[in-house]
Amino acid sequence: MKRMKAFFLALLLFVVTVVGCHFYITREATMDSAALGTLPSEEKGKLRSALVNNIDENGYPVFGSSEFMHGSDTAYHPAQVFAGSDFHPMLIGAGYYQSLSHATTLASIAEGMTVKKAALILSPQWFRKTGVVDQAYASRFSETHYAAAMANEDLNDEVKQYISDRTQTLLSVDEKTQQRVTMYDDVLWKKDGDPIETIREKAWSAFLNEKELFETMLLGNSKKLREAEKKEAAASGNGGEPDWEALLQEAQDEGEVQNQNQFYIDEKAYKRLEPHLEKKKGINSDAYKGYQSGPEFDDLRCFLQTCQDLGIEPMLVIVPVNGYYYDYTGFPKEAREKYYEKIRKIAEEYGVKVADLSDQEYTKYFFEDRVHLGKKGWVMVDESLYEFYKET
What is the pLDDT of residue 226? Predict the structure, then answer.
């Protein structure tokens, strides 16, 4: 009898502890932080709870990749430009995030979006012949986003099938996750999972949601976010539209001091590149079909179709390549222009807005390095994002 009492007491204490931890973590994970939106983070994009709880009525998701991790300590990155402003973009992406993962994430978080808009910053390097690499895709894959996308009844079956097929192929490097993708498809989308599979899905999803809430809580208490929140608070009340002319002039003035090299990139980036320049010269002269074929174009169409299904207005941001550097490597200008034109045609096919910066290939101080946005690049992209937000 005593053993039985001890068992039930231990069980009661365990349940109370678990429930208490759940409510504590849930409270701590609900940040409602404008600073989180522009925080550069590799992990933030995976955390559905962090995104859904922090996209507010003053912003929309801005999808991209490694550019978000560059220039965050300058006056031109969205984290600085929009601090304290009336626009709260949610930057989603880091290296290896591309169109397919962004389509899945958008389908996952759409229900939490007040402003039914989304921007996608396109990197030309995404459109290599291979498309997104399987290991890279697997490293950024979020099961919670995938499950929510499959459960989204506004997303049509053709798009779900495309996302499922591509995901199954790219997750061949991770068989266990691949098997769970099949489980999500059966239970949440096709609704034909057997009772055991349904129970497994509910149990596993409950575990993942708790794990994600904990990771969101850690992100909310991170030093980087605390510092970003201090900057946000210090800039509070700035409101209004940034002075784009003044920012461009500031970028010009800084560039004239800091970026005086043959590619007009940041001096630190140039010094890292300089020892390798001899072997880079003319190396891409045979890339006459560069960035013009591969699965990324269909992944982009999937993103745009997702927007169409969910009633979200998208904007594509066409980022150019560094003309000075690409000329140095011999990458044909004609191939670059064909890539830009192909993106324009896809945008026209879906009737979507384009912020076309392809004519900025030779704008000095546009780039931080060979491919990432720098001083002037960020100012121009920021202005495009803000104007899109202000359009009714």
Answer: 85
Residue 221 and residue 29: Cα distance in Å, rounded? 9
Tell me the three state secondary structure of residue 355. strand
- Beta strands 353-356 and 117-122, pairing class: unpaired
Task: Provide the CB-side half-sphere exposure for 224 (13 A, CA).
Answer: 14
- CA separation for the pair 181, 173 (Å, rounded): 13
Low-confidence ranges of the chain (pLDDT < 50): 5-29
d(CA 332, CA 85): 41
What per-residue confidence (pLDDT) applies to 73? 87
- State how far Cα 202 lies from the chain centre: 27
Answer for the pair 150, 48: CB distance below 8 angstroms, yes or no.
Answer: no
SS3 assignment, position 53: coil
267/335 Cα distance (integer angstroms): 28
Please state the separation of Cα 381 from the chain's center in Å: 15
List residues bridging with 122 in a β-sheet.
318
Closest CA to 299 of 337, 343, 358, 336: 343
The pTM for the full model equals 0.91
- What are residue 370's phi and psi, to 5 degrees? -65, -30
CA 176, distance to chain mean position in Å, is: 25
pLDDT at 1: 56
**DSSP string spanning 145-205?**
HHHHHHH-TTS-HHHHHHHHHHHHHHGGG-HHHHHHHHHHIIIIIS----HHHHHHHHHHH
Percent of the chain residues topping a pLDDT of 70: 91
Query: Which distant-in-sequence residues (6+ apart) come within 8 Å of 70 by Cβ?
Result: 368, 369, 372, 373, 374
What is the per-residue pLDDT across 243-274, written as a single tens digit (0 to 9) for each?
999 999 999 999 999 999 999 999 999 999 99
Amino acid 233: pLDDT = 76
